[in-house]
Amino acid sequence: MKILGSVFLLLTIQLGQAFAATTDLATIPLATASPSVVKPNLMFVLDDSGSMGWDYLPDNVNDNKTCKPQTACTNGMPPFYAGQFNGVFYNPQISYAPPVNADGTSMAAQVSPWTAVKVDGFGVASTGTTNLITGFPEIVYCNTSSTSTADLSNPAKCKRNGIDTTNPFNYQITSGTSATGYPDATFKNQKTKKGTPFYFVISPVEHCSDITLNTCTAATVATAAYPYPAPVRWCNSAANAAAAVPVSGGNKCQATFNSAMSYSYPRYGTFKRTDIVPATASYGPFTYRADCASRTTCTYNEEMTNFANWYAYYSTRVNMMKTAAGRAFLPIDNRFRVGFITINPGSPVQAANYLAINTFDTTQKANWYTKFYSQSVGNSTPLRTALSRVGRHFAGKQDGLNSGMTGDPVQYSCQQNFTILTTDGYWNDNTTPVQVNGTTAIGDQDNVNQTVTPIYSSRATGTYDGGVGGGNTLADVAMYYYKTDLRTSALGNATGALGSDVTENNVLSTTLDFATHQHMTTFTLGLISGLMVYQPDYVTAGTGDFANIKAGTSGACDWVAGICNWPVPAANAPSTLDDLWHAAVNGRGNFYSARDPQSLSDGLAGALAGVSVRAGGGAAAATSTPNITQTDNRVYGSSYRSGKWDGDVTSEQIDAATGAFIPGTAWSAQTLLDGRVQAAADTRTIYTYSSGGASHLKSFDWASLSVAEQAFFSNKCSVWSQCTVTSLTAPEIVIGNDGQNLVEYLRGQYQFDMRATNTSQVFRTRDHVLGDAINAKPVFVKVPQNSFSDAVTPTYDSFKTANATRQGVVYVAANDGMLHAFNTDTGVEMWAYVPKMVMPNLHKLAEVNYASSHQYFVDGSPEVMDVFDAANAAWRTILVGGLGGGGRGYYALDITNPAAPQALWEICSDSTLCGISDTDMGYSYGNPVITKRASDGRWVVVLSSGYNNVSPGTGHGILYVLDALSGAVLNKVDTGTGTIGSPSGLAKFSVWADEASRDNTGKWVYGGDLNGDVWRFDLTTSTPTVVQLAALRDTVAVGQPVTVRPDLGLVNSNPVVFIGTGRFIGTSDLTDTQQQTIYAFRDMGVNLGNLRSRADMVQQTLTQTSATTRTGSNNAVDWAAKKGWYIDLNPSNTSPGERVNIDPILVNGTLLVFSNIPTSSACTVGGESWLYQFNYASGAWPAPVTNQQVSQKISTSLTAGATVVMLPDGTIKAIVTDASGNKSPVNVNASGGGSVTGRRVSWRELTP
């Protein structure tokens, strides 16, 4: 059972979390984000022809062969009052929700006493009311032509229904036997009786082998061989329709009405009548009725209100369209530009029938609903002209048939233009549709089977008409306005609505909708079917009429002999409905066939979903994360696809001679993991945190979860758009609300996702199991790498020896809510871990519209360190990771034995989720620091308060010191800056250790915040203290935000902090052009204030020498007298918006700094990047350089990150990964000399 009138898919291009006056945090990677300022255009086209006022659907319902007697079937006759036959009539399986207003409130439900139910709930066709208790019409047959009101209810004088017996009864159209019932020779006078409401349900007595309903057997229930019920079949003779035995095969009866081929005789199942009367207390059983308290049965009041709602708001085609479309459009917001027009808007176009496309804000939405709900009907059906009119509108034309359509809808060259064309009947234009110039006929646009790209018309795509059709069809119109560049200088429409050029061919594209020029994408919805049998999954189905057309199957289509081609459309004929389908295929949209309120709701939802997905980011790009980790010559890289939001981890190899990547991969974790799951089973090991047990781990499966944890996954259907808009069946809703099904889906099982092969389709379909890994750097762990000399037993050397053959594992945090552990030899997932604190949000992964509502879950880079467990006298390897934008917390695991991990602790801001909690813990964008506390040698984990640690937090910048193994909070050090309204944003840290690889004793921790303040936390005292070291300010004294981890070094025995400024964490950062700077300054133990204003800070400058190179100055820096140096980015305003958002790397006396310049134009995503190499002591060029060059443009895309390697010949390379996934080795000009200590340089020596 499906529920009508629900909330539609969230049509959002979700870029940022909403925080009032707090830090803007994006929920998708900004480097591949669609430009949020460019809103897609959507024109909704309403059929306002006279037939839209009819109270039956499809047209053949009132045919003279569908009811007995064989005159026009009408109100009061059994077939007319059966929702399975007349799609407009009341169907008791549907909940008829009232329409909604623009503000989301519902119109009045038609409740008791039902004596004044609105005839037209929208008040257009009628403002009157009717008494449904006594005034509902019924046809009866009387034995005299003169009858009184009392006679109509006297069974001796008037008979009703077919044979006037108790339910159920057979309803046959033919006469000649005593079984055919009334009317007969005596009771032959047709009269209309008024009384209480009633309806019929047709129970199938035949089931068929496929959707064509050709091959069938006598059966009242489905079987494996005959699963398709046949409440009504259309036969080619009266004899076949009335045959007592099943009529099967031989093309005698079928699913579709086709009068041209004589398929016009209905073969019904059995009819059961239900009267809605007070004497009947319970109605049903129903599959699912959302309006009834019990859901499966309804009281008299509930049934009567549902019927009255239907009568007022659904009982005509146009009212059904108004109600369903009004509810479907409700969730659309100002991320879209929406307009309205009818197919008969007048000439010139009248304001009453047209609303110009505009941002769908509160005002536009109110205007749209008012205009839509006020439409009346009573015209012809010029669909071809209507679609041409909208196509010309997107071309900016306001002459000819577009006269009166004010306003150019196209603002940007990359803007997408969508049309949803709705109709209930056959087109019958009396004029020829025209091209952009307004005079040339559309012609035949799809009669060529193309083989050369770009392929607009081909057999394989279903667009080719077969070469047998004439021109100027609706499909030709859709094809023309799709394949034609609608904005060119030659057309005289190069300038868009904002006065800028809109001719550049850069429209976002998908595999299906591939055109990058300005075009119209067409979705169509028909309230009737043509000669072809419609399948909702026609796009992917391997069988059926559309599949036969694509394959060119011979002899499979009954409307044409030989090879299957599209039916040749003729005005006022069923073939024009197939032309409507063909138009959607040509226009690279989708076609939806709707014959009742529930399928209409589904179709509108599907069309809007298609618009949403395509507007939500274009093609699913293969985008690599920056973050690669290597051992020997092997590199493990993670990648993701935007839109699809899946990921991969691959093992690649570096050429030891050149540093270049060797083509090919040793394995793909994505492929291997896909092989571990089946529809209803999987072989994965997935853990989550447990407060009990030695390992503090338990299986992430339904049976292992606590009651509180199970609640995170149960009854979530109400928050998914697919439950409330695409109208899942009642069994599907039950499936969705069953938490066990959701947990199994999160494990990768797919028996209930929306792939076409599934019977029950509830959850979002995933192409792959592994989720997107975006901001989290993979971590490789194998043999212990340090040389600790701690005086403990056992020694670190013995620990290294014991683990000399430890299995290599790459740990990857991903936004499927898990940390994954992959065997580096094979790529097989050994296990995964779900932090408990992400559980409350994991249901969002099943949202069908997740493509445009992505969010982060486990997105922080894990850190790994060997620590000594004094209580158990053992060395242990621990991993600590944050959630990034996925939440406010961290988790810690013991991975000493990668085959048997143990959970250590979780800390977060919510005490109901974590055993250790603090309300000042914000979004964990910071990096965990694992070190020995200098004051007592205790192994600790240092964490930051992160971003948006707002209410109930204070917003202050805070450093936490936790016991590494227990997670107990030992210290909480507050900078005292930041507020709830403007939080500090203290995130990334670096720790100072004199010789970290031998003695990882952390003395001081350094970090910067979003205000541009740099802090040092002192771990040498039992109670850590904090001091501000510097204020980073631009030329007008505005704080320069810090979002990177500082690097640390010694210059002439002076501890120096190297840091860059800039942020790229929220959508507002895309267009930020604040001056950003690179600083190197001494730790003086006191606040140096605004470094820029100090005379003892030496400024170096950049000079742009070519499009790809920059040189630097060489002003002397005397560290005995100076505090450091700094250098501003964006020389001579050549790169406004340039900032440092990638951690700088100090290697062998050279400071590597990567800058990014996001493109801020409306139609361009990405940007470009520069790599700076400075002598760490002076900020000038490194020693090996002789031409003063300090910078080179390294990418026409944003840099996502880098890692440093040393080749066997001593050459140092930076492997730079850009946001497009390209990995490029760049030579590092190592300065040499000086003491560079502190945080260990992140590179390893490669071997041949």
UniProtKB/TrEMBL annotation:
It holds the Pfam family T4P_PilY1. Its main location: other. Belongs to the PilY1 family. Gene3D superfamilies: YVTN repeat-like/Quinoprotein amine dehydrogenase. The keyword ATP-binding does not apply. Keywords: Calcium, Fimbrium, Fimbrium biogenesis, Metal-binding, Signal. This is Type IV pilus biogenesis factor PilY1. It is found in: Fimbrium. GO terms for cellular component: pilus. Residues 770-1084 form the PilY1 beta-propeller domain. Residues 1-20 form the signal peptide. InterPro entries: B-propeller_PilY1 (IPR008707), PQQ_b-propeller_rpt (IPR018391), Quinoprotein_ADH-like_sf (IPR011047), WD40/YVTN_repeat-like_dom_sf (IPR015943). Residues 1226-1248 are annotated as: Disordered.
